[in-house]
Design goal:
mainly alpha
């Protein structure tokens, strides 16, 4: 009877449903990151901010906001055991992912980059399963693999170069690994710390590097107003508020299950890129998007112990 009781429930609990909705909110916020980064960094023909400045300055600005927030909420200091996971969270979410994607975005369109980043849910789920000692079912992993295969296949189809990988694509693939580390350890900490405090502490401990990095790479050319607006979004939403919802969602719903919501992120990014950047969206893209959304729906119904 005990074994049956442990394996029968398939539907998400109330907390897991809340986690999924918060995770979706975080994904919507993050979906604008690539288009906004492309707008802020510019193109080879019309360069704006450097990728290094964007990564360092957005983290520095969010870190200063975090100090005010931590003081306002009277946040306690992290426990001794939490400092190492916080450092790894910062490595992935503050440095690795933003830096690599910002450098790459000058050389690829947001539509292209969004489908490359689309395999992030699989790496996040793998990191979550390891860190949280969760055991997804075989069906869950098949859905994760199928969804990731769809977005990778789409990226190759649209690249026009077969199996060849461009240098910008390599940076984006490396960014996914850092993103999985940041999401995984951030989700782990959110189970014993307030989710909003996790990203705030990660940003605060990064300030000794991000503030000098931003100062040393400050733009020395005249920038368009839209460039600064895009940077403001990256600093306040992509680097800060988005993680409030995302880490709370991971804590409530479980990293492995909630990470599947990320599968819709590349197609949301594409939809945002059309009006913001003038990029195109065709029937093939829509078809792949619908297929991935269907896989996400099936995957979240699979049991995760």
């Amino acid at each position: 009877m005990t074994t049956l009781h442990a394996t029968l429930p398939l539907a998400p609990t109330s907390a897991e449903r809340r986690g999924l909705w918060l995770g979706l909110l975080g994904v919507v916020i993050f979906a604008l990151t690539l288009p906004m980064t492309r707008m802020a960094v510019g193109t080879p023909a019309d360069p704006q901010m450097s990728g290094v400045f964007i990564a360092m300055a957005r983290a520095a600005a969010a870190g200063l906001l975090s100090i005010a927030f931590l003081l306002a909420t009277r946040a306690p200091l992290p426990q001794r055991a939490d400092w190492w996971p916080l450092a790894l969270t910062a490595l992935g979410a503050v440095f690795g992912f933003p830096l690599l994607t910002s450098i790459a975005m000058r050389h690829v369109e947001a539509v292209h980059a969004s489908v490359i980043i689309g395999v992030l849910p699989l790496t996040t789920a793998a990191a979550g399963a390891l860190l949280h000692r969760q055991r997804p079912s075989t069906g869950f992993w098949l859905c994760a693999a199928l969804g990731s295969a769809l977005v990778v296949g789409f990226a190759m189809l649209r690249s026009g170069s077969g199996l060849a990988i461009q240098s910008a694509d390599v940076l984006l693939l490396l960014a996914m690994l850092f993103g999985a580390v940041g999401y995984g350890f951030g989700g782990l900490l959110s189970r014993r710390m307030r989710a909003d405090h996790v990203i705030c502490w990660a940003l605060v401990i990064s300030l000794p590097l991000t503030v000098p990095g931003a100062a040393l790479t400050w733009p020395d050319v005249q920038l368009q107003p839209t460039t600064w607006l895009a940077f403001g979004y990256l600093a306040v939403f992509s680097q800060w508020l988005g993680f409030f919802a995302w880490y709370r969602g991971l804590a409530l719903g479980g990293t492995v299950r909630v990470s599947q919501v990320q599968l819709v992120q590349p197609f949301l990014s594409m939809l945002f890129a059309v009006p913001l950047l003038g990029e195109t969206l065709d029937a093939v893209t829509v078809g792949f998007g619908l297929a991935v959304i269907a896989v996400v729906f099936i995957g979240k119904r699979m049991p995760v112990r």
